[in-house]
């Protein structure tokens, strides 16, 4: 990841967006927002109404924030962030929105608003913190199978490459700083790498990236999936978040300075609770416990691919904290907010990070480690819910409106999964006597 510092993404985008020009060229505007679980949502209005929306917002049924668990309608308002406006097509523009309640105040159950609230709460750290991302996904054919048999960094150009390249081209044209893309380790699996951005801009960019990847796949008759582990015999897909904080240093002896170690210590101290925000589906835990490269314990290292947090960098650059516990279905606003808050708590309390657990020749699998006691991460969604609710600091980081909806929705998912009869069960037990 490129670690060059520069003007904040939101300020840069604000200076580049020519709203009048865009509105003159399109017929409709998509007012984009996300539900609590990270799903993209939108209200599309005729362009002639957009000035009215700028002035007063756009009313909508706020129960859409609860996705499939929606019950009672709630009157809320979408407030566009003009710095995020882009032209998606000849007829359609898109602008990211935050949510206000019917009282006109920011609705703290909105994930984007929750991140903005955390940014205000962590003070100076907010302006110093930036993050980039590795977004992994599968491309499938019409029958639902991986579209190619490529390998890690394969160098050939089937239709899947065309889909990824066009998605990258579009994202760059929209201002998303994609630095690279490549074939991942499994059949039909790809990765798009996004350069360092401020927290809100990165979350916005990840939601847009998922949308564009799906659109381009569909255009070529393919299907893109961000499911954490869609195939039991293939690798899972992750969302690795690379974090940097201006002012953190690598010392002469190669160690991190005290503030950096405390930041790391905070994220490790709250690792169990953060799992809910990073891995919010029952399928997430099939990725996290599939093998030696998926984090399953609370550990950090420099070169260990199984570590939850991997720290890289030297005296010439700020250290990078790669959080490897998230998957592509994580709500980026919530996991970035959680990581920021946890890091800030570590700095406030001067928490210890402990010793790094490095990988030895031949690889490292914490499941078979005999000499080191490691605290496990949650192994299923219910355990992650319990860990989150047991972490008073993380619970207090978010508003009750968000917590109630998030926990209720994810508990319902876990309960529905428990009652589902899988093909494996049928094959294993149907004829047993």
Describe this structure in words.
The protein is α+β, with helices and mostly antiparallel strands and 433 residues long. It has a domain at 117-401: 2-Layer Sandwich (Creatine Kinase, Chain A, domain 2), CATH 3.30.590. 37% of the residues lie in helices and 19% in strands. It has 15 helices and 14 strands. The protein is globular, with a radius of gyration of 22 Å. The termini are far apart. Mean pLDDT is 90; it is low at 3-11.
Mean pLDDT across the residues is: 90
Q: How many β-strands, per DSSP?
A: 14
Distance between the termini: 57 Å
Cα-atom radius of gyration: 22 Å
Q: At the fourth CATH level, what is the homologous superfamily of one domain?
A: Glutamine synthetase/guanido kinase, catalytic domain
Order of helices and strands: HHEEHEEEEHHEHEEHEEHHHEEEHHHHH
Note the overall shape.
globular
Strand fraction? 15-25%
Count of DSSP-assigned helices: 15
- For the record, the CATH architecture of one domain stands as 2-Layer Sandwich
- Biggest sheet details: 8 strands, mixed
Structural class: alpha+beta
What is the CATH first-level class name of one domain? Alpha Beta
CATH topology of one domain: Creatine Kinase, Chain A, domain 2
């Amino acid at each position: 990841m490129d670690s060059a510092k520069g003007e904040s993404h939101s300020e840069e985008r604000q200076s580049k967006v020519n709203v009048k020009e865009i509105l003159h060229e399109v017929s409709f505007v998509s007012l984009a927002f996300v539900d609590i679980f990270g799903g993209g949502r939108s209200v599309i209005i005729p362009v002639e109404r957009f000035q009215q929306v700028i002035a007063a917002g756009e009313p909508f049924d706020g129960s859409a924030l609860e996705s499939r668990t929606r019950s009672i309608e709630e009157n809320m308002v979408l407030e566009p962030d003009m710095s995020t406006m882009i032209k998606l097509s000849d007829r359609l523009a898109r602008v990211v929105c935050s949510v206000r309640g019917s009282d006109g105040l920011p609705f703290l159950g909105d994930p984007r608003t929750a991140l903005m609230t955390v940014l205000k709460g962590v003070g100076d750290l907010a302006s110093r913190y930036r993050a980039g991302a590795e977004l992994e996904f599968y491309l499938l054919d019409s029958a639902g199978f991986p579209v190619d048999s490529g390998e890690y960094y394969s160098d050939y150009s089937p239709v899947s490459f065309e889909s990824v390249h066009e998605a990258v081209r579009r994202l760059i044209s929209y201002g998303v700083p994609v630095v690279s893309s490549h074939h991942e380790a499994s059949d039909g699996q790809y990765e798009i790498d996004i350069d360092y951005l401020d927290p809100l801009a990165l979350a916005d960019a990840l939601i847009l990236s998922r949308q564009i990847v799906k659109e381009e796949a569909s255009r070529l008759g393919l299907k893109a999936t961000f499911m954490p582990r869609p195939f039991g015999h293939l690798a899972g897909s992750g969302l690795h978040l690379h974090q940097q904080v201006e002012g953190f240093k690598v010392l002469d002896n190669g160690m991190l300075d005290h503030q950096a170690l405390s930041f790391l210590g905070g994220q490790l101290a709250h690792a169990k609770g953060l799992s809910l925000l990073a891995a919010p589906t029952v399928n997430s835990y099939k990725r996290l416990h599939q093998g030696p490269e998926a984090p399953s314990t609370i550990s950090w290292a420099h070169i260990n691919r199984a570590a939850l947090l991997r720290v890289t960098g030297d005296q010439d650059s700020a250290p990078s904290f790669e959080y490897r516990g998230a998957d592509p279905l994580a709500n980026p606003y919530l996991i970035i907010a959680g990581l920021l808050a946890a890091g800030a708590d570590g700095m406030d309390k001067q928490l210890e990070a402990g010793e790094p657990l490095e990988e030895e020749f031949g690889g490292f699998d914490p499941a078979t480690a005999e000499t080191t006691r490691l605290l496990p991460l949650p192994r299923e969604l219910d355990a992650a819910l319990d860990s989150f609710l047991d972490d008073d600091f993380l619970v207090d980081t978010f508003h009750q409106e968000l917590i109630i909806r998030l926990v209720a929705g994810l508990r319902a998912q876990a309960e529905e999964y428990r009652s589902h009869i899988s093909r494996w069960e049928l094959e294993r037990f149907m004829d047993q006597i």
